[in-house]
């Protein structure tokens, strides 16, 4: 998953904004620094929101002035698990998995959770999906 940012020069610095996430902004002195700060700001904001149960919108902003910024894998996994759960409660999924509610909560928390591949396979199976992992 990627979100796209806009870069704008203003008085010697480069301002960064995410049209899909208006509360995420940063800057840099160079394009490289601005994009590195953009990744840090995006992923910090998403991790905090997802840990509190808030899912981001689907990315829509694109264009020739758009710069892609990747969502960190541990955050993306938490987002995808939450999306897969749909209308089920965390307690219902935990029961299907045979784990405590608190253990399941960690799977949807990119700040505190650190799921293993085995636990991700189990979650996928319980929610009627298959897990595919690849290095890009």
Summarize the structure in words.
There is one protein chain. Helices cover 43% and strands 17% of the residues. Helix 3 (90-97) packs across helix 4 (101-107). It is elongated. A hairpin with a 7-residue loop joins strand 2 and strand 3. The chain has helices at residues 31-51, 73-85, 90-97, 101-107, 117-126, and strands at 2-10, 13-17, 25-28, 66-70. The protein has five helices and four strands; from the N terminus they run E-E-E-H-E-H-H-H-H. It is of the alpha+beta class and 136 residues long. The chain has a four-stranded antiparallel β-sheet with strand order 3-2-1-4, with helices on one face. The protein folds into two domains: 2-70, Double Stranded RNA Binding Domain; 73-126, lambda repressor-like DNA-binding domains (434 Repressor (Amino-terminal Domain), Orthogonal Bundle).
């Amino acid at each position: 998953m990627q979100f796209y940012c806009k870069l704008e020069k203003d008085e010697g610095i480069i301002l960064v904004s995410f049209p899909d996430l208006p509360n995420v902004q940063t800057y840099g002195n160079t394009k490289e620094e601005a994009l590195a700060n953009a990744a840090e700001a995006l992923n910090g904001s998403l991790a905090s929101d997802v840990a509190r149960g808030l899912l981001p919108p689907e990315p829509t902003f694109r264009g020739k002035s758009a710069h892609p910024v990747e969502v960190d894998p541990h955050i993306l996994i938490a987002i995808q698990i939450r999306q897969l759960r749909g209308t089920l409660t965390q307690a219902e999924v935990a029961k299907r998995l045979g784990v405590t509610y608190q253990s399941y909560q960690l799977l949807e928390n990119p700040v505190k959770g650190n799921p293993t591949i085995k636990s991700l396979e189990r979650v996928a199976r319980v929610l009627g999906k298959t897990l595919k992992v690849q290095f890009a």
